[in-house]
Amino acid sequence: MRLYRFELQKLLKLPMLWGFLVLSLALNGLFLMADIYDAPWTEYVASILPVTGQRTDDPAFPAGLKTLPDTPFRTVLAEQTAEPQNVLEGFDTARLGQQEAGLIGVTGKWAERVAKKYEALQPVADEMAASGVAYDLYAGEGTHDYQVHLTGIMYHAALSEALLLAVLLTLYAFGYEVQNGTDLLVFSTRSGRCINRAKLAAALTASLLCYVLLCVCTLIPFAVVYHLRDFLSMNVSSSFNYVRVSPALVKPFLTWKPFTLAGYLGATLALGAALTVVFVLFAAVCGLLLRNTYLAFLAWFVTAVGMLALTVFCGDIGFWDGYFLGMCLPVPVWLHQQHWFTDMGIAGFLPWQETLCTAGGLAGFAALTLLAARRFQRKDLT
Amino acid sequence: MRILYHELRKIWRPATLLVLLALGVMHYYLLMDFNIRLFPNGHPAAEQYQTAREWTEKYGFTMEPEEYADAKAEYEAMVAAVDARLASDPRFEQCGIASWKEYQAFQEQSVFQESGSAAYEAYMELRALLFGEEYGFAGYRLEERSNALVDYEFRQTWVTKALAAQTPAEQARKEELLTSPRINGIFPHICADNLSEYLCWAGIFAILSTVILLTPCGARENLSRMPAEQWPTRTGRGVCRYQFAAMLLSAAALFLLELLIFGGIYTTNGTGFFWNSPTQTFLLGDFFWFDLTYGQYVLCFLGMVFLLMLGTAGAVFALSYTSTSTISALLKVLPLTVALIFAAAAVTSHPFTDANELYRHTRIMGVEGILCGLIWLLGVSAGAAYMCSRRRKELF
Hints:
The complex is a heterodimer of chains A (382) and B (396). Chain A has 16 helices and 2 strands.
């Protein structure tokens, strides 16, 4: 415990860690302004919800809307909700699957697997259509932009910064002794090479702390400026929410289970934390295998970019085993974060792919870390 | 020179070079290959490009009124050839089409028919024929040539209407364009668009590679307590000058290396043909604020990337030598890298034209060059200032 405390102190006392956090938050502050022109609209929609309720198919909705002062925003909203829509009603997921698969020309057993995924999505779509969650107003016509701004820009930025910090902190922890010339001294003590456990625990703690700090300090200003609290009870599969797959293909934002925005954000934050742990373990493997910290960082960086390049390459040459298995690697999972808990389109072949892949990533990298640690235990360090 | 050589050796480590090579290959494959392999990106872009190329070969860099008459006659000959072929094709005869003009009339009637209706399907079938391989993409060729001729006829109207001059400088440029022969320039704007995209990614990689190559140098020196060994020597603290020079030289060498590789690859798409063509053209594209040939435009691009790389090297020198660990150096350099990548993307996206976002916000002609100059000045000044402060610093 004492060693863990000292290791954690080393990490948290790194001055540039705080500098990096401040600069990251400053950058996120700029991203916060990306959709500022839509803020009056979201403010208006949030303000009418206590009067109208959130379901557009509820007769109280148009009645409530009529009682509000006549403003241009009210007119627009009245037009948008004049004919309440349930886009999930009669939605054919099999057809969507064919269209998605057709985009990259996937064939053979992988086409069947993708079709099976969309088969599994049909009951979910039917159930959600029956419950009428798609009638939720969310942010009206501004829903798509709101969702993209929240999860695709703000949270994605915070998650990316946290993952980068997780890698750098882990490599710093594992490379500290070598860089300062204290390695031989430390590894010849009673604790010896067991110090790596304390280092890993400290890196995990510091990384998760940074993740929480970045998410909180990024999402709270967003919540204040864009009235997030008022939309938390809305279902993310609202008819106004959609995913643009290609210029010609737009699909509903259909999740594997009905999620309110609060639930969706909670699940995303939890999965992001798990992904942070995966990246810590990924960096730990590099740190344990390579004693040169900079080379370890470069090895991590090349491997991370390689995960993307390899997946794209496999897709290009039609090697679908490589393509779909490559999509399970942590970097593609991070890249497609905006569509977590949805069907993930051509980036996935399984229901809940991101969750399963992150769990698999945790197990895989934990095993790799153990192997790397075992190798380190047996290595001659002089 | 010996010290400089050794400082350079410390920077150019084989492992780092291998990493740069791997990253370069992946960066090229993921982001830049498209602009080479698929240039000019299908139809009708290929026909636009081809038309400009043929006209440049025939008429030179500009199209004068008498040359326009010749081009029009040539277009009419092309139409006559297609007419002859259409008249003898029973598939077109079935729909009562015997000429390109009749096809156009048929198209006007059918294009708004309901998708799936018999009339629409018949139109789509004929269109696929005329705009397909069997007819040598004749439809695209005729359409693009006709559009280009119309662009020439209305070039002055286009400048008057499309260039919404908001500042006196824009107004002056607009008036200059209206009276200048530059308005007759033949140049496919797809060349400038493609170059802009390609060099945007190349510029981003240039910054990334400079950062990867130079970041560990200072931190590594500090970690191995080199200043304590170097400063008491005959060269003493003057070694900082060599270290700074080595960093700048490395950035310059990296620029040359990347220029050779990425530039070499780019030459394979054949756009070098337009090297001496004026970028301002009547073939609808962006408005250029300066009278540049394509070659000069390419050189301006490269100059901006070079300035960015030197600025990056100067700043990285200051940040790296103030770090006591490579991770510290990375944490300092990463935010700078992100900022520089944004800057590189901003300056290399349609620079010196009205389409550049930076220009749209500032309305300063040449703001892209000014920004690159500022980054270079700030980066190199930061490096130089740190070098001077290091010479006055206490060792411990």
